[in-house]
Amino acid sequence: MSRPVAPVPASAIERFDGEADVLVVGLGCAGAAAALDAAAAGAEVLVLERASGPGGSSALSGGELYLGGGTPVQQACGFEDDADNMFAYLRAALGPHADEEKLRLYCDGSVDHFGWFRSLGVEFQESLFDAPTWMPPTRDGLMWLGENAWPYDQLARPVPRGHRPTAEGFAGWLIMDKLVAALHEAGVPVQTDTLASALVVEDGRVVGVTARGYGADVAYRARRGVVLTTGGFVDDEEMLAAHAPVLLGHGKVSDGLDDGSGIRMAAALGATTRRMGSVEIALTALPAAMVRGMLVNALGQRFINEDVYPGLFSSAAVKHQPGPWWVIVDEAGWESIPERDLWGVRPTHAAETLAELESELRIPDGALQATVEVYNRHAARGDDPLFHKHARWLRPLEPPFAALDPRLGFAIGRGSAGEGTGAAGFTLGGLHTTVDGGVLDVSGREIPGLFAAGRASAGIHGEGYISGTSLGDGTFFGRRAGRAAAR
After folding, report:
1. Number of domains the chain is built from
2. Range with the lowest mean pLDDT among 38-47, 407-416, 460-469?
3. Of the candidates 56, 182, 404, 416, which lies 20 to 30 Å from 283 by C-alpha distance?
4. Is 61 left (phi over 0), alpha (psi -120 to 50) or beta?
5. pLDDT in tens, 333-351
6. pTM to 2 decimal places
7. Which residues are 200's β-sheet partners?
8. Is residue 416 one of the residues assigned to a domain?
9. Structural domain contains residue 1
10. Domain check: are 214 and 298 in the same one?
11. Where residue 319 sits, what CATH number does that domain have?
12. Which of 13, 441, 485, 9 is nearest to 201 (CA)?
């Protein structure tokens, strides 16, 4: 059951337990960025964090940063990029209905934002991981995130923009370590184990928050503004059912505390929301096997080019295709996969013929055979007229065959398979904000003193998602919100 979140009049507060120019509620990547730039603008800042330490879902993330426009890493790897080219790709990949005003600012400021990360001590190896994957098992600092897959390669010049901090595997913790170290250096205090419960208002302006800390009710005043960076709402089943029911029954990509609390606190004051039904979904299907074979639905049908960004094939499957979904590969394709790209996955079914495989997978007789026959006929010519998989990955599939079951998840990583479905996700919608993080009310006016960033707000996304755009836009617009609150 959701906690009461009605705004509290300042006159009802007997005393404030702390005061600062800017209060930042939540210490993930967006909160840290907001606090840093508010402090750099000369404001006294206090951060409130409900957990016993910083990081939130950001620290558990893969750590990809979607940056481009001509970063030093891109240039060192031999790629020319610009803000217009980056915008053209993201407008399509994050759409339909991406927030083009925010997206334009993000692309125009991407090179500078890259420099900001470097100024914090985040390092990037100047090398490219040149294969489809959820996450490189190497220390390469650049990766493709679907920019070279159809139809996006027709809409923008293909340039990789997935920037990876120098770490093997998950790197969200590394980014948060650098952000928190910068906060300490800037002298920004952090109050942990403090769960914000409601906004404090005075004469129509947000002037603080009430909270629960160490078993006691507390209150904090903000002289200039409150910045909500409390995350999304994937961990609140009631909000999911109301706004994003496609994620019900699947796993959750979060730290377990993305309960929509900040969104509800602001909505109780009249704030409006945007894109609440937009979500990111990750299906634990192995990209290295898919590009060498195919992804099919429960009817044995292909439905997308398998070399796209993994989040796009995941959303296409879970939102629009009957499951279970299967990755089909032949022996030659399986044996060509580098061991490091297998992610601990092994085939669940193998057969000498497609008819036998259909029977094992309970696919209608002849359906998978027809799919492979059409695929092979065109692959022999280096073509995929149905879905336009890149010619690099096309060749006829020959017996014996195997099937991989995404419901079993990966044997490495942090367990993204959920509830036996193989799918996990998080929410993208949230509070409707200006480009400077000002929270809008239902009449379209800014609520004085209230700002938001990160997954508590609706950022650059429309219906689509690309890895790195959470940490990327969370920090970018977190910084803008921090500066605006400091003003």
Report:
1. 3
2. 407-416
3. 56
4. beta
5. 999 999 999 999 999 999 9
6. 0.96
7. 8, 208
8. no
9. no
10. no
11. 3.90.700.10
12. 9
